[in-house]
């Protein structure tokens, strides 16, 4: 069975690019437009990894990571932040919240697939 990646970004076009790269590499993809919509998908279903933006309406990526890590079933879920943010301060906030990796947009789809294959358990 394909591993499932949850992609969270408020840009539908970016979610589409990420989805095409990941499905092309054999992953199943779930999508959410913000952190709150993504949290609703953490309902006990098997999710192997999350690719998450930082700047989103309703609930941002750092808030999502904290909320996801507070759920016992998703405590060890690997989360890759995919964002335009490159400041060390933001990276530290992400790491403190529980994010495993940080990738700055724009990105090469092969770079994303390589990162996912390393992190996805």
Automatic annotation (TrEMBL):
Gene3D superfamilies: 3.40.50.2300. Pfam families: Response_reg. Keywords: Phosphoprotein. The modification 4-aspartylphosphate is found at residue 53. Residues 4-120 form the Response regulatory domain. SMART domains: REC. SUPFAM superfamilies: CheY-like. One of its GO terms (biological process) is phosphorelay signal transduction system. It comes from the Bacteria. PANTHER family: CHEMOTAXIS TWO-COMPONENT RESPONSE REGULATOR, STRESS RESPONSE REGULATOR PROTEIN 1. This is Two-component system response regulator. It comes from Rhodoferax lacus.
């Amino acid at each position: 069975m394909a591993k499932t990646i949850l992609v969270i970004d408020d840009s539908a076009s970016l979610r589409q690019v990420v989805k095409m790269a990941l499905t092309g590499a054999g992953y199943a993809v779930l999508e959410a437009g913000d952190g709150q919509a993504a949290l609703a998908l953490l309902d006990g279903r098997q999710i192997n990894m999350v690719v998450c933006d930082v700047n989103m309406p309703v609930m941002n990526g750092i808030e999502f990571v904290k909320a996801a890590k507070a759920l016992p079933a998703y405590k060890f879920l690997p989360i890759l932040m995919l964002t335009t943010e490159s400041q060390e301060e933001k990276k530290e906030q992400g790491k403190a919240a529980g994010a495993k990796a940080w990738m700055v947009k724009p990105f090469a789809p092969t770079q994303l697939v390589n990162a996912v294959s390393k992190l996805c358990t």
